[in-house]
Amino acid sequence: MHDLFQGSFKNRRILITGDTGFKGSWLAIWLNEMGAKVFGYALPPKTKRDNFVTTDLCNKIIHQDGDIVDFEKFLSFVKKTQPEIIFHLAAQPLVLQSYQNPRETYQTNLIGTVNFFEAIRAVSSVRVAVNVTSDKCYENQNWVWGYRENDPMGGKDPYSSSKGCSELITSSYLHSFFQGENSASVASARAGNVIGGGDWADDRIVPDFFRACSKGESLVIRNPHHTRPWQHVLEPLSGYLQLASKLWMEGKQYSGGWNFGPLDSNHYSVEDLITQSIAVLGSGSFTTPLNHAKPYEAHLLKLDVSKSMKMLNWKPALDFQNTVSFTVAGYRAEFLGTDIYTQRVNQITEYIAIAQKQDIKWTK
């Protein structure tokens, strides 16, 4: 894998905040396999099922437990490791938890972003910085078309608004501190609802489904008709890596915000996702409660990824059926007691092969 993304990551010192999380741990695996020297800074994993634990990542990368809100501790780690590239994924990522703990959500997602950029300002080794936010950063109007990178930031629930704020912070730091020739090249990445093996977070539809299956229970779906840009975790990660590679090789012309999501034809409802998962797994069921009081969540959300496709030569490689099949295979490996790190690497290899058959440019 060392030649992927123009060989930008081989022997590079790369720091991931939030490496114990779902996407962060998958990103650490991919970078490790591409020959990078990977460092991680994050809160400890929440469960023994988490991808960071089951893949034994703590023995494959250099990890430091820490809260991104603790600026002095984070800055000390950045100074010690002297990274050349940083991916910022440390966040409170759950909509329902943001209703329960709005103060924690805003602290982590806003102050954490400020601390991320302040550390970059203080450590001259950093040449590239990518802040990973969310598709929910946009002011959602339930449009039938996708949101573009220059659409207004917003969000009605605490999580979504915190991600909109994180984008505004990124824009402010980019224009205030990262315009000079010798400053870091900075960008933000916005992705949709990411699924895949190793995600056991609470109040997420796919982990909830597999938890129900493991207990022989029927999944309760609160919003069966909500449409989301479902994508396997490797899809946005390939986008983040392609973006970082462009920033590394070609610099500030790739600064700013970028969307990574499925093609418009691949947006499906929650019910579609679970129905397809049941078909692939060969078991499972779901019900929908009547008259259930629900916190606000947008009914329809799409991203326009034409900018990333045209300017980064990136595009999604998996259709909806493959997205679900990859996801089910990831969880099935955990249930069977497979060597999880090897299974994740094999899925990355399979994903690369699918992308190559479609002549996706980052595989060149």
Characterization of the model:
It is globular and about 55 Å long. It is 43% helix and 13% strand. α3 (71-81) runs parallel beside α5 (102-122), α9 (270-281) crosses α11 and α11 packs antiparallel against α12 (340-357). The protein has one domain (4-291, 298-363): NAD(P)-binding Rossmann-like Domain (Rossmann fold, 3-Layer(aba) Sandwich). By secondary structure, it is an alpha/beta fold. It starts with 12 loop residues before the first strand and ends in a 7-residue tail after the last helix. α2 links the parallel β2 (37-42) and β3 (62-65). A 7-stranded parallel β-sheet has the order 3-2-1-4-5-6-11, with helices on both faces. Strands 7-10 form a two-stranded parallel sheet. The mean pLDDT is 94. The protein has helices spanning 22-33, 51-54, 71-81, 95-100, 102-122, 158-177, 205-215, 234-250, 270-281, 306-311, 320-336, 340-357; strands at residues 13-17, 37-42, 62-65, 85-88, 128-132, 185-191, 194-195, 219-220, 227-228, 231-232, 256-260, 268-269, 286-287. It contains 12 helices and 13 strands.
Can you describe this structure in just a few lines?
The protein has 364 residues and is an alpha/beta fold.
Keywords:
single chain; 364 residues; alpha/beta; Rossmann fold; 7-stranded parallel β-sheet; two-stranded parallel sheet; 12 helices; 13 strands; 43% helix
- The CATH topology: Rossmann fold
Strands of the widest sheet, in order across it, are: 3-2-1-4-5-6-11
- Total number of β-strand segments? 13
Which CATH architecture would you pick? Answer: 3-Layer(aba) Sandwich
CATH class descriptor name: Alpha Beta
Provide a count of the helices: 12
Q: Which structural category do the helix and sheet elements fall into?
A: alpha/beta
Overall geometry comes to globular
Poorly predicted runs are none
Query: So, the CATH homologous superfamily?
Result: NAD(P)-binding Rossmann-like Domain
Distance between the termini: 11 Å
What value does the average pLDDT take? 94
Number of domains: 1
The biggest beta sheet reads: 7 strands, parallel
Question: What's the helix-strand series?
Answer: EHEHEHEHHEHEEHEEEHEEHEHHH
β-strand percent reads 5-15%
